[in-house]
Amino acid sequence: MTPIGEPRAMGYDVTLIPGDGIGPEVTAAAVRVIDATGVGVRWERVEAGAEVLMKYGETIPEAVLQSIRRNGVGLKGPLTTPIGGGYTSPNVTLRKALDLYACLRPVKSLPGVPSRYEAIDLVVVRENTEGLYSGIEHRVVPGVIESLKIVTERAVLRIARFAFEYARLEGRSKITAVHKANIMKLSDGLFLECTRKVAREHPDITYDEIIIDNLCMQLVLNPYQFDLLLLENLYGDIVSEICSGLVGGLGVVPGANIGETCAVFEAVHGSAPQIAGKGIANPTAVILSGGLLLRHLGEDAAAQRIQRGVDRVLQEGRVRTPDLGGQATTEAFADAVIAAFE
Ligand code: NAI
User: Fold this and answer.
1) Minimum CA distance residue for ligand 1 atom 37
2) What is the pTM of this model?
């Protein structure tokens, strides 16, 4: 990820959105871990999500957007979205309002975390602003709904350039564009036209393409053949979760939503209402998202401390949350990571 600056002696202002469900618990754990690195973050706490909707009539109040625009960086807990009706996804609202066009999810095996595969190390880059997520739906006649998939040259060129630039900076050698252009000839056809154009600008990086359904099978059979996956919005959403499953589940995969002027870091998982308030949610994904945030700020040493601390605790296996077969609380896991800092 492109760091936005050199480490700063006077610290950083970062927006904190605790979120819904397990959000406040896992973000509190991540804040403690980030603070323990000594980087000097001043947290500007703002409220968004389901409860805020009751109070202010919107899930993402203007104050949230202003705070992130001002600080340039945010750490966010999951936000609940009702299924089949109710309010628009606050996540989609936030990404659109701040034009956080690139969703980045590094998927890496963690030591000691049970999973089907070892040594997975791949990256999912997802276009975050359009596709079927555009939310343009209407009822044509009773019993018939039309949902529009929007693909624009501007958005695809931009996400493809982000992916190639990221690959170059992070030493990734291959980008696979994922599509269904055999069926969606125009929309996914344009997607491929644009990714091919950007690929030609980067001859140093291998480029290939795969149809989405085949990708899903190949990921399950042999995930090692992939390095960086480049996808439109909906495919990226689904494939991110398959990839999370390859490394032990939703509780351990971090993420970032990046725009031209600001970036919001968050776990891949949702608000997990079944376990909210019990203090047993796994904070690993948000802690590692905090690591990505520090990297974005140019604080590589602090980011590495977090990664090594998490690796040590998981490798040792004594302190684990219930989703990973242990009995530790969210707080106890954060304590153990801090204690494992060298
Ligand atoms: P979910 O990710 O909340 O939960 C799926 C399963 O994983 C559940 O069994 C849950 O208990 C478990 N899980 C998730 N995170 C965990 C953690 N940190 N530690 C331990 N176990 C964990 O997905 P679900 O149930 O589909 O969605 C619940 C709500 O979250 C929905 O309203 C959805 O819209 C929202 N959501 C929000 C996201 C965001 O804010 N970025 C992302 C995904 C979902």
Assistant:
1) 270
2) 0.93
